[in-house]
Amino acid sequence: MEFYGLLGEKLDHSISPEIHEKIFSLLKIRAAYKKFEVKKEDLQKFVDGLKVLGIKGTNVTIPYKQTIIPYLDGLSEEAKKINAINTILLKDGKLYGYNTDYFGFGTILQCNHVEVENKVCMVLGYGGAAKAVVQYLLDHGVKKLYIVSRRTFKDVYNDLRVQFMTYDEIATVKGDVLINTTSVGMYPNVDASPVAEEIIINFATLIDIIYNPRITKFLEIGRQLDKKICGGLEMLVGQAIKAEEIWQEREISYEILTKVMDDFDKKF
């Protein structure tokens, strides 16, 4: 029996255990996946516990995606660039951090046949998930990238393709792909959209990384305007599949991805 889990502060509504248990079942792996609600002052004890108990893999969610990094023995390349992790692997007594949100966003693009190379993209929001999305876009040849947030920008990208903006400045921007990484429109506030129709109409493809509801208000507006729309379930499942590939040290087939997708598509 192998042991895995999810590290966070408040995990009541997380469906990560269900997703990973489904993957374990499809791969015929005997494993258990538990929620670990940990206070910040107990992080060192928790990390020590992972090693002592031999917890092979751990997912990490808010608010520890950056806080946990100093406790780890190494980071993957994408995690170093993003400066946030959501997956930990215990190997040979050491803990390694990865960012599978990066690959999960790629899953959205692949499943929906969306090209970002040489495209003009706009990312709404600049939280943890947004940074993974931004790094993926930069690594995959985006032509121009607008990052929109209500907060002051501290990060500086040494990349001329990146431009930070406020919501007041985006009305005149026309582009190819508009991506919502904010929580606006997430259940139960399903009648909210991060931007209005006047903004949405300026883009050909809309992506929302929210998975509940499956079609957010943001995407529904896009659908009514005959835009290509992509929801966040592919990212949710895609990042979980990538975490399992890291933990199991094997590739997982697209067939497994689609089976998990189909199973959870019915839940939202």
UniProtKB/TrEMBL annotation:
Function comment: Involved in the biosynthesis of the chorismate, which leads to the biosynthesis of aromatic amino acids. Catalyzes the reversible NADPH linked reduction of 3-dehydroshikimate (DHSA) to yield shikimate (SA).
Keyword Amino-acid biosynthesis: yes
GO molecular function: NADP binding; shikimate 3-dehydrogenase (NADP+) activity
Keywords recorded for this protein, A-Z: Amino-acid biosynthesis, Aromatic amino acid biosynthesis, NADP, Oxidoreductase
Name this protein carries in UniProt: Shikimate dehydrogenase (NADP(+))
InterPro entries linked to this entry: Aminoacid_DH-like_N_sf, NAD(P)-bd_dom_sf, Shikimate_DH, Shikimate_DH-bd_N, Shikimate_DH_fam
SUPFAM superfamilies, per database record: Aminoacid dehydrogenase-like, N-terminal domain, NAD(P)-binding Rossmann-fold domains
Reaction(s) this enzyme catalyzes, per UniProt: shikimate + NADP(+) = 3-dehydroshikimate + NADPH + H(+)
EC number of this enzyme: 1.1.1.25
Active site positions, chain numbering: 65
Name of one Pfam family that matches: Shikimate_dh_N
Pathway where this protein functions: Metabolic intermediate biosynthesis; chorismate biosynthesis; chorismate from D-erythrose 4-phosphate and phosphoenolpyruvate: step 4/7
Oligomeric form and interacting partners: Homodimer.
Binding sites annotated in the UniProt record for NADP(+): 77, 125-129, 209, 232
EC class (word): oxidoreductase
GO CC terms, sorted: cytosol
Annotated binding of shikimate, by residue: 14-16, 61, 86, 101, 211, 239
UniProt similarity note: Belongs to the shikimate dehydrogenase family.
Ranges of residues in domain Shikimate dehydrogenase substrate binding N-terminal: 6-88
Single GO BP term: chorismate biosynthetic process
